[in-house]
TrEMBL record:
Leader sequence residues: none
Name this polypeptide is given: Acetyl-coenzyme A carboxylase carboxyl transferase subunit alpha
Organism: Chondromyces apiculatus DSM 436
Major subcellular location class: cytoplasm
Matches recorded under NCBIfam families: accA (TIGR00513), AccA_sub (NF041504), PRK05724.1 (NF004344)
PANTHER family, per the entry: ACETYL-COENZYME A CARBOXYLASE CARBOXYL TRANSFERASE SUBUNIT ALPHA (PTHR42853), ACETYL-COENZYME A CARBOXYLASE CARBOXYL TRANSFERASE SUBUNIT ALPHA, CHLOROPLASTIC (PTHR42853:SF3)
Function text: Component of the acetyl coenzyme A carboxylase (ACC) complex. First, biotin carboxylase catalyzes the carboxylation of biotin on its carrier protein (BCCP) and then the CO(2) group is transferred by the carboxyltransferase to acetyl-CoA to form malonyl-CoA.
One GO CC term, this protein: acetyl-CoA carboxylase complex
Length: 317
């Protein structure tokens, strides 16, 4: 995986690279351990200072980082006995949405997530993480299967949005998204959604009607991209930074507004710097959240989900 470094993260990224090299030396020679400890402390301090002052648009850029872990990166680290299920049984297979059966801490679950690609060839295969209607209909098939067999559903959200092409619209893109929302709302099993990258519009929400929604520290969740918002409001896409701030789409804003239920802290420098550590942190949050829903019966899970979304946007004067 080629290293991609954003301008504002370069000081931290360079230190993290030095830490990796020094850690490899310390593994074979203990004399390097004191120096490693000092460098790790310096790196953590610089990362806290730098990332504490990131603007909204910089966090959006991190959520889109080419080296961030995608759904399949988490699948291979969080789950065992993974069996991918393909196709919507109506039209075709859509590689922008992956789903299947797996074991999570020994518990059978259904896993569904958006999947982007790395490099041009895989991105074309995955359509840059933008699903067609058949991707959402595959998700619906898996929601209904999970409901039938009483399996918890874990979803991973990471998409710029649903694919807006002519073919997708002709095959019923909006209907497929709406049907996915309905299938998730009706499912009488625990559903936990995690926003691992960028969560764009209805294309993200089709995997987001959950009892609990987690968000990675530098992920975002929006009704429209900052660039799209700026182009519509001001006819000027270069004002995306202003739009990002006004949209309130970063993790702290989402938590304050009640759109998400918890923020999962990322490793030093972001999840893209250490996929393994990011997975460990998400594993703890996911398992804790999933087990907290065990006390709810089938009908209570549906009602809990209904109340959660009805409360969004409700304010007392």
């Amino acid at each position: 995986m080629a290293a991609v470094i954003l301008p504002f993260e370069r000081p931290v990224a360079e230190l993290i690279d030095k830490v990796r090299k020094l850690r490899a030396l310390a593994a074979s020679d203990p004399r390097f351990e004191p120096e490693l400890a000092r460098l790790e402390e310096k790196t953590n301090r610089l990362a806290r200072e730098l990332f504490a002052d990131l603007s909204a648009i910089q966090k959006v850029q991190l959520s889109r980082h080419a080296n961030r872990p995608y759904t399949l990166d988490y699948v291979k680290r969080l789950f065992t006995d993974w069996v991918e299920l393909k196709g919507d049984r109506r039209y075709a297979e859509d590689a922008a949405v992956i789903g299947g059966l797996a074991k999570f801490h020994g518990r059978s679950v259904v896993v569904i997530g958006h999947q982007k690609g790395r490099g041009t060839k895989e991105n074309l295969k995955r359509n840059f993480g933008m699903p067609h209607p058949e991707g959402y209909r595959k998700a619906i098939r898996l929601y209904e299967m999970a409901d039938r067999f009483g399996l918890p559903i874990l979803t991973f959200i990471d998409t710029p949005g649903a694919y807006p092409g002519i073919g997708a619209e002709e095959r019923g893109q909006s209907e497929a998204i709406g049907a996915a929302l309905g299938a998730m709302a009706r499912a009488s099993v625990p559903i936990v959604a995690t926003i691992i990258g960028e969560g764009g519009s209805g294309g993200a929400l089709a995997l987001g009607v959950a009892n609990r929604v987690l968000v990675m520290e530098f992920a975002c969740y929006s009704v429209i991209t900052p660039e799209g918002c700026a182009a519509i409001l001001w006819k000027d896409g270069s004002r995306a930074d202003e739009a990002a701030a006004q949209l309130k789409i970063t993790a702290p804003d989402l938590l304050q507004l009640g759109v998400v239920d918890a923020i999962v802290e990322e490793p030093t420098g972001g999840a893209h710097q250490d996929h393994d550590d990011a997975a460990v942190r998400l594993d703890r949050a996911l398992w804790s959240t999933l087990t907290s829903l065990d006390e709810l019966r089938d009908e209570e899970l549906v009602e809990d989900r209904y109340r959660r979304f009805r409360a969004l946007g409700a304010y007392l004067a």
